[in-house]
Amino acid sequence: MKWTLRDIVITAVLATACGAVYLAWDLLYKFLPTGISPVAAASFNGLWWIAGAIVPYIIRKPGAALLAESIGGFVEFALGSPYGIQAFTIGIAQGLTIEAGFALGGYQRYGLTWMLVASSLGTVGNYVYSYFYYGVNQYTTTEQIGYFVVTLISGAVLAGLLSKWIGDALKRTGVLRNFEISRSAADSR
Amino acid sequence: MIGPDSLRRDERAAGRDEASPGGYPRPGKPMLIRLREVSVTYAEGGLPALNAVDLSLAQHDAILVIGASGAGKSTLALLLAGLIPDSVTATVTGKVDRDLQLREPGAVGIVFQDPESQFCQLTVGQEVAFGLENIRHTPAGMPPVIARALQAAGLAVPLDTPDYALSGGMQQKLALAAALAPSPHLLIFDEPTANLDPESTGQVFSQIAQLVRDRHSVVVIEHKFRPLLDIMPRVVLLDRNGHIHRDGPTSTVIQQEWSWLIGQGLVEDAPNIRGPEATTTGPSRAPTRPVLAAEGVRFTYASRRLERRLTRNHVPVTYALEDISLAIGGGELVAIVGPNGSGKSTLLSLLGGLCSPSAGVLTRPQPRPGLSVPVAFGFQNPEHQFIFERVVDELANRYVEGSIPANTQRLLETFSLPGHAYDSPFGLSQGQKRRLSVAVMIRDRHDAYLLDEPTFGQDQATQRTIMQHLQALTADGRAVVISTHDMDLVHRYATRVIVLVDGRIRFDGTPEALSRNAAVQREARLTVSTDAQSEPAQQVLVRPSRFIQVDRRQALSPIGRLNPGWKLITTMGAMILAMMAHTVPQGVLLVALPLCLLWAGARLSWLQIAKRMAPFIGFFVLYTWTLTAYSRIGPHTPTMYWLWFRLSWTGFRNGLVLALRMLASVAFGVLYVSTTDVSQLVVSLTRNFHVPPKFSYGSLAGIRMFPLFEEEWAKIRKARMLRGKELHRSRWTRLVTYALPLLTQAIRMGERVAVAMESRGFRKEVALTPEARSYYLETPISVWDFAYLAIVLAASILVVTIG
User: Is the Cβ pair B694, A133 closer than 8 Å?
Assistant: First the structure.
C-alpha cells in the first residue's frame, strides 16, 4: 500500500492531463447548458472529477483520489480557469468525498459497481461547495434536488464509467504492468 | 543524521573541489562491479532479459555494449546503475557484487535515451542542482559545481534557461552535466544518441571521448556504435538471448566477430554501398510523369492574417520553407535529409496535404474512384497512427469479428507479426510497431508514400524489412519519399536525395553526387564527427508554454518575493472570506483589493491587469444571469416570466454579488499565478510544510510534462486528419483513438522520469524526509509573509463586516 515515486509521477501526469481537460470543459460549459437551466447544467459536473476516479483505479493507494483531484484542480487553476483558485479548492472538496468512497471499500474494491459508487460520491463535495460558493443555496428546493440527482448520475457516468473504460483500455496496452491495477487483476470485477 | 554515510558524503564534497572538471578519478578499490551468473527476468515465467551474465567492471574501464534490439542492453545498464530491482521491478538471480561506494546517492550517473523524459525540474540550473541536493551538497557551494559540470558537458546556456527549450542534443548534454555534478564513480550511457541527428550525435560522442581520455569509468550502450570503436577500448557483445557472446579488447573482438555482428543484424555486410536491389530501380529508370510537384512553394507557421500584417509593417516573416521547387515521379525513392529544424517534416507534411503552402503551387494526385487516399503518410511515432485496440483490426482497418480475413493474415505473416493478431498495437515492441504502421500504409494502393523517419530507433533487421518493402513499391511505379538522418540508409536505398538547409533546397541529386560534394555535406552537417572542434551554434528553441514561467518583473516584485506556501494560504483565506460578501458594494471592494495588489504589489500595469482579467468577464455575465433567472424568491417579489425563466431584481442583485465574489477569487488567483514560480512552491511545500519530497518533487515532475502533452496532442490530431476519412463508422472509438496514444505515451514517459529521478539519488530517505536533502532554491519565511497575510485578511474582514 506504499506509494512509490512511479505512482506519484503517474498520478501527477494523469491529473495534469485531466486538469487540461477540466479547463476545456470550463470553456465548453460556458457556452452550453448553464444559461438554460441549473439542473441541465449539472449533467456536466461529473467530468470535473474524473482524475479522482481514473487515478485511484490505476494506482489503488490511499489518498490517490485526493492527490489527483488536488493536482488536477491546481493545474486547471494555473492554466487560467475562469473559476480562479476555486478550481483548486473545489477539486480538494470533490477529491475528499471520492476518497471516502474508496476508503469505505478498504482500498480493495475497484470493480464496476464500486467505481460508480465512489465516483458518484464526488457529488457530495461538489454539492456542499457549490451550495456555499456557486449560489446553489439560492435555487428552489426542487431545483436543488434536481441538481443533486443529476450530478450524482453525471459523476457515476462521466467520472466512474469513463475512468473504468479508459483504465481498462490502458491496461490492455500493457503500459500499466508496473501498477497496482495489473497486480490485483482478480479484484477488478 | 550523523553517521558514516554523511561523513563519506562530506569527504566527497570536499574532494570535489581540488579535482578536475567532473571531479575524479580518485584512488580506491579497482573493482567496481562484478556480476556472476546474473539473470534478470521482468514478467513472471517470462524469458530472461539478461541470461547468466558474467561481467566485471573495474575503475577506469570504458566499455562499449553492443547487441540487437531486445538483447537486454538497457537491462544491463539499469542493473549496473543499481536501479534493478529497486526502481525497476524485476527478478534477479545470481551474484551481484557492488563496491560500497557505488551505493551512495549520485555515485552512478546515467544518461538515458530519451532526452525529454529524464528531467524533473524546470530550468537548467535546478536540473543540475537536483543531484547535488540529493547528496546534501551545501547550497552555497552549488553554483561553482554546477558551472563546472555544465562546462565539462559542453553546454553553455544561462542557468535560468527552461530545459524544455533546449534542442535534443543540448538536452543530452544537460543530462550529462546533471550526471557529472555529484562526481559519480561510474557513468552509464544508455543509447544517448538514439533520438539525435548526426550533428548532435557527434557532439555527444566527442563528450564521451573526452570522458574516456580523462580516465572516467564509463559504460556506453549504443546502436550507432561505429564512431565509438576507436574510442572505447573494451567491447561486450550481447546476443539475442541476453547472454554475453564475447567480451574483450575492441579491435580484436570486432575483427573476429564481424560475421557474428552481421548475423545479429547489427551491421550490414556491405557498408556504404547500395545493394543490388537498389541499382535496378535506380536513376537509370526514366522518370515518369511527376506524382508530386511543387513550384516556388513557401510556407510559414504564422497565420495568414499575421503574415499579411507583418508584411504590411515590413517585419520579416520567418518561413519554415522557402523557394521549394521539385517534381517527384513514380519509381523514385527520395530521401530528404538535413539538420534538425531545417524543414524536413514540414516539407513532408506539405506534400502529404497536412498543411497548405503560404505561396506557390503544389500539385498532388487527386482522389479518384478506387483510390480515395492517393497519398499515404507515415508519422515518426507509429503510435500516432493507431486507431484500433488490436493489431488485427488495425491491419483490416475495421473491427474484425470471427476469423481473420485472408489478406490480413498475409500481412501478419509478411511483416512477421503472427501471434500478435489480438494484442494491443501499443503493447508491441518498437520494431513491431513500426512494421505494423508500414503494413497499414502499404495495405491499400496509393500513388505516393510519405514517411517521416521510418527507420528511427530501429535495428538493422527491421530497417531492412521496411526499406525492402518501400523498394518494392517503387519497383511497382509508385513514389516514395522519406525523411531521415541516416546517411548509410540514403546511400543504400535512395535513388535521389534532397538536402534541406534552413528551409531551402540546398542539393537535389543522386546519393553518389552528394557524397562527392563535401561543401553540402558540411553545411547540412550530414556526417557524424567526434571532433570536438566543430562547436555548433547553441540555439535555444522557443516553445511557448503558459503556466510554468513567471515574468522576471513579477518574480522580483514585493509579492513575488513572498514565501509561496504562505502566499497560497493567504490566497485561500481571502477566498473563504470573499464568500461572506452579501452586498454589491462589499463585492466591488473585494474585487478592488486584489486588483490593487496586482498593480502595487506585483507591479503589473493596469493594461496588463485588464488583459489578464478579460477572459473572465463572460463568466461574470453568466453568473449574474443564472441567478437573475433562477433565484429563489419570496412571494411578493416583482417577477417577470419569460419562456421558462422567472426574472427578478432580487435575483439580479444576488447574481451580481455572486459574480463579484467569483471575480474576487479569480483576481486573487491571477495574483498568485502571476507572482509564483511552481518550483519555488514545490520547494516551499517540502521545506516549510514538511511534505515528503517524493510527493512534491514527484508531482512537479508530472506537471512539467504538460508542454509535451500539447505537442503530442497536435501530432495525434494531424494523424487523425489523415485517417479521419476512413473513420466515419465508429464515432465512439474516436475518444479511445485520441486518449490511448496520448496516455500510453504519458505513462511511459512518467515511468522513465521516475526511474531517472531515482537514478540521481532521489530514493529511500532522501525522497522521504525533507531534512535528508539540501535545497538549491531558497524559500525563506519572513515577517513580510505574516504581514501580507494579516493585511489581506484584515482588509477582507473589514469589507465584509461593514456595509
Answer: no
Distance (Å, whole) CA B159 – CA B124 = 5
User: What residue segments make up the domains of chain A, in order of their start?
Assistant: 5-187
Nearest Cα to Cα of residue B744 among A158, A65, A174: A174
| Alpha-carbon gap, residue B635 to A184, rounded angstroms | 58
Q: Which of the residue ranges A31-45, A109-123, B29-43, B611-625 would you say has the lowest mean pLDDT?
A: A31-45
Domain with CATH 3.40.50.300 in chain B: 4-263, 330-353+364-523
Asked if the B4-263 domain carries CATH number 3.40.1160.10, the reply is: no
Cβ neighbors of B98 (< 8 A, separation 6 or more) are B32, B33, B82
Is residue A125 within 8 Å of residue A96, measured between CB atoms?
A: yes
Tell which B residues from 683 to 742 touch A, by Cβ distance under 8 Å: 694-695, 698-703, 705-706, 709, 736, 739-740, 742
User: Which of A164, A167, A134, A165 minimizes the C-alpha distance to A45?
Assistant: A134
How does pLDDT run across B429-451, given as a tens digit for each residue? 777 888 898 888 888 888 899 99
Determine the pLDDT at residue B733.
54
Quote ipTM for the complex. 0.93
pLDDT at B14: 39
* B43 interface with A at CB cutoff 8 Å: yes
**The amino acid at B389:** E
A164 and A58 Cβ atoms separated by less than 8 Å: no
CA atoms within 13 A on the CB side of B283: 13
Question: How far apart are the C-alpha atoms of B770 and B779, rounded to whole Å?
Answer: 13
Determine the distance from the C-alpha atom of residue B311 to the mean position of all C-alpha atoms in its chain, rounded to a whole number. 34
Q: Which residue has the cell 493594461?
A: B607
Tell me the three cell numbers of residue B177: 552535466
- For the domain spanning B330-353+364-523, the CATH number is 3.40.50.300
pLDDT tens digits along B299-339: 877 667 777 777 777 767 777 888 889 999 888 999 999 87
β-strand B62-67 against B218-221: which pairing, if any? parallel
Cβ distance B694 to A8 less than 8 Å, yes or no, reads yes
pLDDT in tens, B359-394: 888 888 887 777 777 888 888 778 888 878 788 888
Would you state the pLDDT for residue B725? 47
Amino acid B625 reads W
Subunit contact A173:B702, Cβ cutoff 8 A = no
Rg (CA), chain B: 30
Measure the CA angle with vertex B176, ends B170 and B182; round to 5°.
Answer: 140
Closest residue, chain B, to A4 (C-alpha): B694
Counting residues of chain B whose pLDDT is more than 90, the rounded percentage is 35
Say whether pLDDT at B289 is over 80.
Answer: no
Chain A contact set for B754 (CB, 8 A): 4-6, 8-10
Rounded to the nearest angstrom, the minimum Cα separation between B703 and chain A is 6
**Phi (first) and psi of residue B347, to 5 degrees:** -60, -45
Q: What CATH number was assigned to the domain covering residues A5-187?
A: 1.10.1760
Query: Best residue in A2, A5, A29 to probe B by mutation, most B CBs within 10 Å?
Result: A5
Q: Average pLDDT of B230-253?
A: 92
* Nearest-angstrom CA–CA distance, B583 and A70: 31
* C-beta atoms of A135 and B626 within 8 A: yes
Give chain A positions within 8 Å (CB) of B654. 135, 138
- pLDDT at residue A26, rounded to an integer: 86
Task: Indicate the residue type of B792.
Answer: V
The pLDDT, as a whole number, for residue B301 is 73
- Across chain A, the runs of DSSP E, i.e. the strands, are none
Cα separation, B286 vs B329, in Å, equals: 9
Cβ burial B126-165 (10 Å sphere, 16+ → b, else e): bbbbbbbbbbbbeeeebeebbbbbbebbbbebeeebbbbb
What is the per-residue pLDDT across B645-660, written as a single tens digit (0 to 9) for each? 667 777 788 888 888 9
Question: pLDDT at residue B196 above 80?
Answer: no
